[in-house]
Protein backbone atom coordinates (compact mmCIF):
# COMPACT_ATOMS: atom_id res chain seq x y z
CA UNK A 1 0.00 0.00 0.00
CA UNK A 2 2.80 2.37 0.91
CA UNK A 3 4.70 1.53 -2.26
CA UNK A 4 1.55 2.16 -4.30
CA UNK A 5 1.08 5.59 -2.71
CA UNK A 6 4.70 6.51 -3.34
CA UNK A 7 4.37 5.42 -6.97
CA UNK A 8 1.29 7.64 -7.34
CA UNK A 9 3.16 10.56 -5.80
CA UNK A 10 6.06 10.10 -8.20
CA UNK A 11 3.71 9.92 -11.18
CA UNK A 12 1.87 13.05 -10.02
CA UNK A 13 5.20 14.85 -9.60
CA UNK A 14 6.30 13.81 -13.10
CA UNK A 15 3.06 15.20 -14.55
CA UNK A 16 3.40 18.53 -12.72
CA UNK A 17 7.18 18.92 -13.28
CA UNK A 18 6.80 20.81 -16.60
CA UNK A 19 4.38 23.25 -14.97
CA UNK A 20 6.84 23.82 -12.11
CA UNK A 21 9.66 24.53 -14.56
CA UNK A 22 7.47 26.93 -16.54
CA UNK A 23 6.50 28.77 -13.36
CA UNK A 24 10.15 29.01 -12.27
CA UNK A 25 11.13 30.31 -15.71
CA UNK A 26 8.44 33.00 -15.53
CA UNK A 27 9.60 34.05 -12.07
CA UNK A 28 13.21 34.18 -13.31
CA UNK A 29 12.22 36.37 -16.26
CA UNK A 30 10.22 38.62 -13.94
CA UNK A 31 13.21 39.17 -11.66
CA UNK A 32 15.81 39.51 -14.42
CA UNK A 33 13.83 41.88 -16.64
CA UNK A 34 14.75 45.04 -14.63
CA UNK A 35 18.42 44.07 -14.95
CA UNK A 36 18.05 43.57 -18.69
CA UNK A 37 16.23 46.88 -19.07
CA UNK A 38 18.93 48.71 -17.10
CA UNK A 39 21.66 47.33 -19.36
CA UNK A 40 19.54 47.92 -22.46
CA UNK A 41 18.94 51.59 -21.62
CA UNK A 42 22.66 52.11 -21.04
CA UNK A 43 23.33 50.94 -24.61
CA UNK A 44 20.87 53.39 -26.23
CA UNK A 45 20.90 57.04 -27.04
CA UNK A 46 18.77 59.40 -24.97
CA UNK A 47 16.60 60.19 -27.98
CA UNK A 48 15.65 56.56 -28.46
CA UNK A 49 14.44 56.22 -24.87
CA UNK A 50 11.41 58.43 -25.44
CA UNK A 51 10.14 56.73 -28.58
CA UNK A 52 6.62 55.35 -28.46
CA UNK A 53 5.94 52.51 -28.56
CA UNK A 54 9.14 51.61 -26.70
CA UNK A 55 11.59 49.19 -28.30
CA UNK A 56 12.48 46.03 -26.43
CA UNK A 57 15.90 46.00 -28.07
CA UNK A 58 18.11 48.97 -28.94
CA UNK A 59 17.77 50.05 -32.56
CA UNK A 60 21.33 51.36 -32.48
CA UNK A 61 23.83 49.93 -30.04
CA UNK A 62 26.23 52.47 -28.59
CA UNK A 63 28.89 52.32 -25.90
CA UNK A 64 29.40 56.05 -25.78
CA UNK A 65 27.99 56.31 -22.25
CA UNK A 66 30.49 53.75 -20.99
CA UNK A 67 33.35 55.57 -22.74
CA UNK A 68 32.30 58.84 -21.12
CA UNK A 69 32.18 57.21 -17.69
CA UNK A 70 35.61 55.59 -18.01
CA UNK A 71 37.09 58.94 -19.05
CA UNK A 72 35.22 60.89 -16.36
CA UNK A 73 37.46 62.05 -13.52
CA UNK A 74 34.46 62.54 -11.25
CA UNK A 75 33.25 58.96 -11.70
CA UNK A 76 36.71 57.55 -10.99
CA UNK A 77 36.89 59.79 -7.91
CA UNK A 78 33.52 58.47 -6.69
CA UNK A 79 34.74 54.93 -7.31
CA UNK A 80 37.92 55.49 -5.33
CA UNK A 81 36.06 57.05 -2.40
CA UNK A 82 33.55 54.20 -2.33
CA UNK A 83 36.33 51.58 -2.40
CA UNK A 84 38.13 53.30 0.48
CA UNK A 85 34.95 53.54 2.56
CA UNK A 86 33.92 49.94 1.85
CA UNK A 87 37.38 48.54 2.60
CA UNK A 88 37.86 50.67 5.72
CA UNK A 89 34.47 49.84 7.19
CA UNK A 90 34.95 46.14 6.43
CA UNK A 91 38.29 46.03 8.25
CA UNK A 92 36.97 48.00 11.23
CA UNK A 93 33.82 45.87 11.47
CA UNK A 94 35.83 42.64 11.35
CA UNK A 95 38.14 43.82 14.13
CA UNK A 96 35.35 44.96 16.45
CA UNK A 97 32.88 42.15 15.69
CA UNK A 98 35.46 39.40 16.24
CA UNK A 99 36.56 40.81 19.59
CA UNK A 100 33.01 41.61 20.72
CA UNK A 101 31.63 38.29 19.49
CA UNK A 102 34.41 36.43 21.29
CA UNK A 103 33.75 38.39 24.48
CA UNK A 104 30.01 37.71 24.42
CA UNK A 105 30.62 34.04 23.64
CA UNK A 106 33.34 33.23 26.15
CA UNK A 107 32.70 35.60 29.06
CA UNK A 108 29.60 35.70 31.23
CA UNK A 109 29.05 38.93 33.12
CA UNK A 110 26.04 40.69 34.57
CA UNK A 111 24.00 42.35 31.86
CA UNK A 112 25.78 40.65 28.93
CA UNK A 113 22.54 39.32 27.46
CA UNK A 114 20.84 42.68 27.90
CA UNK A 115 23.77 44.44 26.24
CA UNK A 116 23.63 42.07 23.27
CA UNK A 117 19.89 42.66 22.92
CA UNK A 118 20.57 46.39 23.08
CA UNK A 119 23.01 46.10 20.16
CA UNK A 120 20.56 44.08 18.10
CA UNK A 121 17.64 46.39 18.92
CA UNK A 122 19.44 49.21 17.12
CA UNK A 123 18.74 47.32 13.87
CA UNK A 124 15.03 47.92 14.44
CA UNK A 125 15.36 51.64 13.78
CA UNK A 126 15.86 53.04 10.28
CA UNK A 127 19.20 54.65 9.53
CA UNK A 128 17.56 58.06 9.12
CA UNK A 129 16.84 58.14 12.87
CA UNK A 130 20.60 58.04 13.52
CA UNK A 131 21.41 60.97 11.27
CA UNK A 132 20.75 63.77 13.75
CA UNK A 133 22.86 62.17 16.47
CA UNK A 134 25.67 61.23 14.09
CA UNK A 135 25.68 64.64 12.43
CA UNK A 136 25.90 66.40 15.80
CA UNK A 137 28.64 64.06 17.05
CA UNK A 138 30.70 64.31 13.86
CA UNK A 139 30.31 68.08 13.84
CA UNK A 140 31.81 68.33 17.34
CA UNK A 141 34.61 65.92 16.40
CA UNK A 142 35.28 67.81 13.10
CA UNK A 143 34.65 64.66 11.07
CA UNK A 144 32.05 66.08 8.71
CA UNK A 145 32.94 66.06 5.03
CA UNK A 146 35.58 63.34 5.52
CA UNK A 147 35.85 59.71 4.47
CA UNK A 148 36.41 58.52 8.08
CA UNK A 149 32.91 59.83 8.86
CA UNK A 150 31.44 57.56 6.18
CA UNK A 151 33.57 54.63 7.35
CA UNK A 152 32.33 55.01 10.92
CA UNK A 153 28.72 55.45 9.74
CA UNK A 154 28.82 52.27 7.64
CA UNK A 155 30.45 50.42 10.53
CA UNK A 156 27.68 51.62 12.84
CA UNK A 157 25.10 50.17 10.48
CA UNK A 158 26.78 46.79 9.95
CA UNK A 159 28.24 46.18 13.41
CA UNK A 160 25.21 44.89 15.43
CA UNK A 161 24.38 42.09 13.01
CA UNK A 162 28.09 41.30 12.54
CA UNK A 163 28.62 40.94 16.30
CA UNK A 164 25.68 38.58 16.58
CA UNK A 165 26.93 36.56 13.61
CA UNK A 166 30.42 36.18 15.06
CA UNK A 167 29.09 35.32 18.54
CA UNK A 168 26.84 32.62 17.12
CA UNK A 169 29.72 31.24 15.07
CA UNK A 170 32.18 31.20 17.99
CA UNK A 171 29.52 29.53 20.18
CA UNK A 172 29.76 26.56 17.84
CA UNK A 173 33.47 26.15 18.58
CA UNK A 174 34.21 24.24 21.75
CA UNK A 175 36.42 25.79 24.40
CA UNK A 176 38.58 22.68 24.78
CA UNK A 177 41.06 23.86 22.15
CA UNK A 178 41.62 27.16 23.97
CA UNK A 179 42.00 25.38 27.30
CA UNK A 180 44.61 23.06 25.78
CA UNK A 181 46.46 26.06 24.36
CA UNK A 182 46.41 27.79 27.73
CA UNK A 183 47.81 24.67 29.36
CA UNK A 184 50.69 24.83 26.87
CA UNK A 185 51.40 28.41 27.95
CA UNK A 186 49.50 30.39 25.29
CA UNK A 187 47.70 33.55 26.32
CA UNK A 188 44.02 34.03 25.58
CA UNK A 189 44.86 36.57 22.86
CA UNK A 190 47.26 34.15 21.21
CA UNK A 191 44.67 31.38 21.37
CA UNK A 192 42.17 33.72 19.75
CA UNK A 193 44.55 34.63 16.92
CA UNK A 194 45.99 31.17 16.21
CA UNK A 195 43.04 28.91 17.04
CA UNK A 196 39.72 30.72 16.91
CA UNK A 197 40.34 32.97 13.89
CA UNK A 198 41.30 30.13 11.49
CA UNK A 199 38.18 28.22 12.52
CA UNK A 200 35.95 31.26 12.04
CA UNK A 201 37.15 32.05 8.52
CA UNK A 202 33.69 31.50 6.94
CA UNK A 203 32.12 33.80 9.52
CA UNK A 204 34.77 36.47 8.94
CA UNK A 205 34.23 36.23 5.19
CA UNK A 206 30.47 36.58 5.67
CA UNK A 207 30.95 39.67 7.83
CA UNK A 208 33.33 41.13 5.25
CA UNK A 209 30.91 40.63 2.37
CA UNK A 210 27.95 41.93 4.36
CA UNK A 211 29.77 45.07 5.50
CA UNK A 212 31.22 45.69 2.05
CA UNK A 213 27.76 45.57 0.49
CA UNK A 214 26.32 47.88 3.15
CA UNK A 215 29.09 50.45 2.66
CA UNK A 216 29.10 50.25 -1.14
CA UNK A 217 25.33 50.76 -1.42
CA UNK A 218 25.13 53.59 1.13
CA UNK A 219 23.29 56.67 -0.05
CA UNK A 220 21.85 58.33 3.03
CA UNK A 221 25.06 58.87 4.99
CA UNK A 222 27.03 59.81 1.90
CA UNK A 223 24.48 62.46 0.98
CA UNK A 224 24.14 63.91 4.50
CA UNK A 225 27.59 63.76 6.10
CA UNK A 226 29.57 64.91 3.05
CA UNK A 227 29.21 68.22 1.20
CA UNK A 228 32.16 68.52 -1.21
CA UNK A 229 31.90 66.72 -4.53
CA UNK A 230 35.42 65.28 -4.25
CA UNK A 231 34.38 63.44 -1.08
CA UNK A 232 31.22 61.89 -2.51
CA UNK A 233 30.78 58.17 -2.95
CA UNK A 234 29.09 56.49 -5.89
CA UNK A 235 25.41 56.56 -4.94
CA UNK A 236 25.10 60.26 -3.93
CA UNK A 237 27.73 61.34 -6.43
CA UNK A 238 25.96 59.80 -9.41
CA UNK A 239 22.59 61.19 -8.32
CA UNK A 240 24.08 64.70 -8.33
CA UNK A 241 25.98 64.25 -11.59
CA UNK A 242 23.45 62.64 -13.93
CA UNK A 243 20.07 63.64 -12.46
CA UNK A 244 19.66 67.35 -13.12
CA UNK A 245 16.83 69.74 -12.41
CA UNK A 246 15.97 70.37 -16.06
CA UNK A 247 17.79 67.60 -17.88
CA UNK A 248 18.65 63.97 -17.07
CA UNK A 249 21.19 61.84 -18.89
CA UNK A 250 19.34 58.55 -18.58
CA UNK A 251 21.77 56.61 -20.75
CA UNK A 252 24.74 57.87 -18.76
CA UNK A 253 22.98 57.28 -15.45
CA UNK A 254 22.13 53.67 -16.27
CA UNK A 255 25.64 53.03 -17.62
CA UNK A 256 27.06 54.42 -14.38
CA UNK A 257 24.66 52.22 -12.37
CA UNK A 258 25.75 49.11 -14.30
CA UNK A 259 29.42 49.98 -13.82
CA UNK A 260 28.90 50.70 -10.11
CA UNK A 261 27.03 47.46 -9.37
CA UNK A 262 29.27 45.15 -11.40
CA UNK A 263 31.88 44.76 -8.60
CA UNK A 264 29.13 43.73 -6.17
CA UNK A 265 27.80 41.10 -8.57
CA UNK A 266 31.28 39.72 -9.23
CA UNK A 267 32.11 39.73 -5.52
CA UNK A 268 28.96 37.86 -4.59
CA UNK A 269 29.31 35.33 -7.42
CA UNK A 270 32.82 34.35 -6.32
CA UNK A 271 32.26 34.56 -2.56
CA UNK A 272 28.64 33.49 -2.13
CA UNK A 273 29.82 30.10 -0.82
CA UNK A 274 31.52 31.83 2.11
CA UNK A 275 28.47 34.00 2.69
CA UNK A 276 26.10 31.04 2.90
CA UNK A 277 28.55 29.00 4.97
CA UNK A 278 29.12 31.87 7.37
CA UNK A 279 25.42 32.50 7.85
CA UNK A 280 24.54 28.84 8.45
CA UNK A 281 27.59 27.19 10.04
CA UNK A 282 27.38 29.23 13.22
CA UNK A 283 23.90 27.96 13.93
CA UNK A 284 24.84 24.29 13.55
CA UNK A 285 26.36 22.54 16.54
CA UNK A 286 27.61 19.00 16.47
From TrEMBL:
Q: Where are the transmembrane segments?
A: 20-39, 83-102, 114-138, 150-170, 191-216, 250-271
UniProt feature coiled coil, ranges: none
PROSITE patterns documented for this protein: ABC_TM1 (PS50928)
Q: According to its UniProt record, where is this protein mainly located?
A: membrane
The answer to keyword Transport applying to this record is: yes
UniProt cross-references to InterPro entries, sorted A to Z: BP-dep_ABC_trans_perm, MetI-like, MetI-like_sf
GO terms in the biological process aspect are:
transmembrane transport
What protein name is recorded for this chain?
ABC transporter permease subunit
Q: Which organism is it from?
A: Paenibacillus lutrae
Amino acid sequence: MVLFQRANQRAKFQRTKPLVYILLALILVLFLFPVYWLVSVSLRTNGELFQFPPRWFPAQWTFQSYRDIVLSKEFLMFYRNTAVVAAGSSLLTILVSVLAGYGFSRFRFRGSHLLLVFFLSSQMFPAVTLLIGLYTLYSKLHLLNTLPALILAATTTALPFSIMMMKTFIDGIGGELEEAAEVDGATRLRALVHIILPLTKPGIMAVTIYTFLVAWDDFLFGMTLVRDLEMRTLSPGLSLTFLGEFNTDWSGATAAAVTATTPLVVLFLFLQRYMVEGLTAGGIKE
